[in-house]
Amino acid sequence: MRLNILIGGKAGQGINKISEIVSCTLTAHGYFIFNYRDYPSIIRGGHNFNVLSISDEKISSHESRIQGIVAMDDKTIGLHEKELEQDGFSIKPDEFLEFGRNLNVALAGALIKILGIKKELLLEEIKEQLNNPESIKAAEAGFASQKEKFNLKKLNNKLTILNGSEAVAQGAINSKLDIYLAYPMTPATPVLHELASKQIENKFLVFQPENEIAVANAALGASFSGAKVMVGTSGGGFDLMTEALSLQGISEIPLTVYLASRPGPGTSIPTYTLQNDLDIALRGGHGEFPRVVIAPGNPKESAETTNQALYLAQKFNTLSIILSDKHLGESAFSFSEKINPPLKVEVKRTVPGEKVVRASSYEHDKFGNTTEDGQIAVENADNRMKKYQEIKKECEKFEMIKFHGKKDSKNLIIGWGSTAGAITDAIKGLDFKFLQVIYLKPLSNQIKTEMEKAKKVILIENNVTGQLGRLIREKTGISIPKENRILKYDGRPFRSDELREEILKK
């Protein structure tokens, strides 16, 4: 069973609250959900919509055809009616306008009735989230206005619901983070907000400096003093941080960066999604120095890899980058698996106050004294690269790649990050194996082995040039031909039913 419900309206009307109420109610009822958000970069007006996908088995994507529309304005019906299946339903706002700001709550109630879920479960959720008489009255009126169309009987699944941003924040908290520094930039800002809301109870500091240059340099200063530090930004902010990242490389002060990609170059379409920052994550900064780049594909992986990134940064005094994007960061997933117990992130290096500690942006000797000696420069460069080999050996303890689909298939799909959900859903029942790359630097040696034994290899990425494909060619010597690439770069993520059709054409 699978349903896709589109919920639309103007920015500021509260369509996300409808998705949240219904998603939480469904999850409590044992159903898996995936919620995709689509919105332009305006605060009021325009047209926003969510696609809420519902299933009795795990899903991680949305589809192009919809079975229902919940409209907070007339424009939503006009724009999306062509996507509605013939026997689909639509809920219009007209009869609920009297509820004013609780219009969205009334519409949530109407949708819950159509899905065939008991009113008591809805009201429990309303009381937990809003807890006021007006909202309860609106929910009851919406529920009473509709007839049951689906009979979603309670399932025994015990589920967690998270979006990627909440999961990254949870991973940081699990790692006993001391300081999070960020300057707001979509789509990285939700992690800033999530951590800020939880800093007092978890005893860490969240601070917003004046710009991204200050963020990165203040983070290095705090880390030098012994704090476990993480920063967050999107592509444009990351560009400003790259000089400080090079300072990290030579000073070897631990630093973890959350990089949430947006389309580019420039400001581009800032509230949409693209996987186009892999190149700068791998190479941003001048000079050559070790780093780790990890790209989770769902919230569970986001929490776990954030913990791993902080662990690796401290263990090896290195740069760790968690690479995400708007689609993963702002989409809500429900899942039954437990997040793995976190690794203990420890500061074991000598820090100021214990004895004199020096860190320099210049080449330096073992005491931290500035030097221009050529032999020392060579030794230091060699030691930095030697450390990278130690990092790679440590990373092999983690899940650097993951397989989905038919494990013995000779048809191999390769992808990374937020595309993982749509790919996994698209290949259900097909003769394909999906190799999800989680660690992009270092890159698993197993990728080359899997490609060499495959009959067909298809690359799927949400960018223009196939940046993962280029990285694989660099590291393995294997090139994936253009006719075997599926690349999408209109700022929208893959929809699993459309992707399935593209895969079958290859």
Strand order of the largest sheet: 5-4-1-3-2-13-6
Helix content: 25-40%
Biggest beta sheet summary = 7 strands, mixed
Oligomer: single chain
Question: What is the overall pLDDT average?
Answer: 97
Number of strands: 19
| Distance linking N and C termini | 28 Å
CATH superfamily grouping of the largest domain: Thiamin diphosphate (ThDP)-binding fold, Pyr/PP domains
What is the CATH architecture term of the largest domain? Answer: 3-Layer(aba) Sandwich
CATH class wording of the largest domain: Alpha Beta
Describe the model.
The chain is α/β, with parallel strands linked by helices and 506 residues long. The chain has 3 domains: 157 residues, Pyruvate-ferredoxin Oxidoreductase, domain 3 (3-Layer(aba) Sandwich), CATH 3.40.920.10; 234 residues, Thiamin diphosphate (ThDP)-binding fold, Pyr/PP domains (Rossmann fold), CATH 3.40.50; 105 residues, Rossmann fold (3-Layer(aba) Sandwich), CATH 3.40.50. A 7-stranded mixed sheet has the order 5-4-1-3-2-13-6, sandwiched between helices. The chain has a 7-stranded mixed sheet with strand order 8-7-9-10-12-11-17, with helices on both faces. It has a 5-stranded mixed sheet with strand order 14-16-15-18-19, sandwiched between helices. Helix 7 links the parallel strand 7 and strand 8. Helix 3 packs across helix 5. The radius of gyration is 24 Å and the shape is globular. The two termini are 28 Å apart. The mean pLDDT is 97.
